[in-house]
Amino acid sequence: MNCIFNQHSRPGPVAFSLYLYVPLTPNTKVLMKLKFCSLSSGSNGNCYYLGNEFHGILIDAGISATAIRKFLKNMNISMQTIMGVMITHNHIDHIRGLEVLTRKNYLPAFTTPKIWESILSPQMKISPDCIRYIPLQKKFHLAGFDIEAFPVCHDAPETIGFHICTGDKKITVVTDLGHICQTAAPYIKEANLLVIESNYDEEMLVNGRYPPFLKARIQSDHGHLGNHQTAAFLADNINDNLSNICLAHLSKNNNSPEMVLQTLLETFSEKGIPPNRFPQISILNRDTPTNMLTLIEPDTL
Ligand SMILES: [Zn+2]
Ligand SMILES: [Zn+2]
């Protein structure tokens, strides 16, 4: 079940539309459409789409290339408009479709030298033509977006989040992190649209059937964010720029969309945040297809 707060929904992948005013001259502005979709989110596979009227990018390719192509086609998004895939780290739920996407669609893939080193192997051969190296915390431009990678704490050789700016909008995507470290916090606080992990309900994990070593790994500073961790950070840092929160990478065995939403709303309430200050909240579904959302209908502008 896909759980949406304060939105109408219909079948299809979770998607948002934002509109950007892009100044051409000091007195001229053009309306640009910005779209964000989750194709899949969770340990089963992660893949997110961000696009404008002309181009798009993917963040992670953790489901099969066939599924990515199918879901994009269902949304009338041509693979020809995808300019690249950003890779957060080497765990299989983030790179499952990478080899085929680069081989069959010649899609360039962007990540840091250290993450490339951890990805490339005899089982994961990527054509050198598709390998793009990006620095940490230095902007690069692609498909109309200014993109900046920042390091987060997770149990991979290196893991990054992405902060993406276009026009006056800022999007931060951070899906695997054990705690909100100093390098990640500023990017999270700046976002208008924030995709952030809310992986497990603390009580379900502690009382669940996972072996002690796995529970410890998930709860560690280099594991995943629990519902209360994410909710507390959001409640403490809520600001008027944050229009949309997408809660991502839910555990199948130790969480539910209902638990995520309940924890967040209770935490906001406990911190005295009035409902009229809540951003739009969406819980990204683990499986596809999920629901489609539109943040701003064209005729409401
Ligand atoms: Zn993951
Ligand atoms: Zn991971």
Structure description:
The protein is α/β, with parallel strands linked by helices. The chain contains nine helices and 17 strands. It has helices spanning 65-74, 92-95, 98-105, 113-119, 185-190, 202-207, 212-219, 227-237, 257-270; strands at residues 3-5, 10-11, 14-25, 28-40, 47-51, 56-59, 82-86, 109-111, 131-133, 140-142, 145-152, 159-166, 169-174, 193-197, 244-248, 280-283, 291-292. The strands form three sheets. Strands 1-16-15-14-13-12-11-10 form an eight-stranded mixed beta sheet. A hairpin with a 4-residue loop joins strand 5 (47-51) and strand 6 (56-59). Helix 8 packs parallel to helix 9. The radius of gyration is 18 Å and the shape is globular. The two termini are 31 Å apart. Residues 1-13 and 292-301 have low confidence and may be disordered. One zinc ion is lined by residues 89, 91, 154, 156, 176.
Describe the secondary structure blueprint for this structure:
Layout: E1 3-5, E2 10-11, E3 14-25, E4 28-40, E5 47-51, E6 56-59, H1 65-74, E7 82-86, H2 92-95, H3 98-105, E8 109-111, H4 113-119, E9 131-133, E10 140-142, E11 145-152, E12 159-166, E13 169-174, H5 185-190, E14 193-197, H6 202-207, H7 212-219, H8 227-237, E15 244-248, H9 257-270, E16 280-283, E17 291-292
Parallel strand pairs: 6-7, 7-8, 8-9, 13-14, 14-15, 15-16
Antiparallel strand pairs: 1-16, 2-17, 3-4, 4-5, 5-6, 10-11, 11-12, 12-13
Helix pairs in contact: 8-9
One zinc ion binds at residues 43, 46, 91, 93-94, 176, 249.
